[in-house]
Design goal:
With 173 residues, the protein is an alpha+beta fold. The chain folds into two domains: 10-60, no CATH class; 68-172, Beta Polymerase, domain 2. The chain has helices at residues 10-17, 21-33, 53-60, 68-75, 109-123, 134-142, 146-153, 167-172, and strands spanning 37-40, 43-46, 80-86, 100-105, 129-133, 157-161. The chain has a four-stranded mixed beta sheet with strand order 5-4-3-6. The protein has a two-stranded antiparallel sheet with strand order 1-2. Helix 1 (10-17) crosses helix 2.
Length: 173
């Protein structure tokens, strides 16, 4: 439901969901039998005419299913993380440019990507995220970089924040 206008192949669904192809086949068959999804060629798509669309939205989209402490714990493993902001899908704001911002030093980009993929599998949607080292982030904030301003000036939630990167101080930068 978070990917209404996208088409997915069975193998893509298995990879994104981190489940076996057999389980995906079984679940796709079940979802198609109740008209939740439709087959379009070799792809699967959400059926917008599904009769319980509003109830499913309430259940899947409008409830808080993400354990933020798990996100924090997982991101602490990727280097010296100094700031993590969430926005977009995490706070039900469709107008956000990014869903997550990660700032720190000695960050392991591959490990960050791995943790983001885990979150995407749990949430069921692709995340838009930005990663900066501390020096670059502070410079961009001081130069009123549009991306940084859009993140800081609009609704977001802070998950991790060092004293050095106080978002209140950055807003005034």
């Amino acid at each position: 439901m978070l990917n209404r206008n996208k088409r997915f192949k069975s193998q893509d669904i298995a990879k994104r969901s981190r489940v076996s192809a057999d389980i995906v086949r079984r679940e796709l068959k079940l979802l198609a039998s109740v008209d939740f999804i439709k087959k379009r060629g070799a792809d699967w798509v959400f059926n917008p005419l599904f009769k319980y669309v509003s109830e499913m939205e309430e259940l899947l989209i409008n409830t808080e299913t993400l354990n933020k402490q798990v996100v924090v714990n997982n991101l602490k493993k990727v280097g010296r993380v100094k700031l993590v902001l969430i926005s977009g899908i995490f706070i039900k704001n469709k107008d956000s440019r990014v869903d997550m911002l990660v700032v720190g030093d000695n960050l392991k980009r591959g490990k960050i990507d791995e943790e983001i993929r885990k979150l995407e599998a749990e949430i069921g949607a692709e995340l838009v995220y930005a990663v900066f080292n501390t020096k670059e982030f502070i410079y961009r904030a001081s130069m009123y970089d549009k991306l940084i301003r859009d993140i800081l000036d609009f609704p977001h939630e802070v998950l991790i924040q060092s004293k050095e990167l106080s978002t209140q101080a950055l807003k005034k930068a």
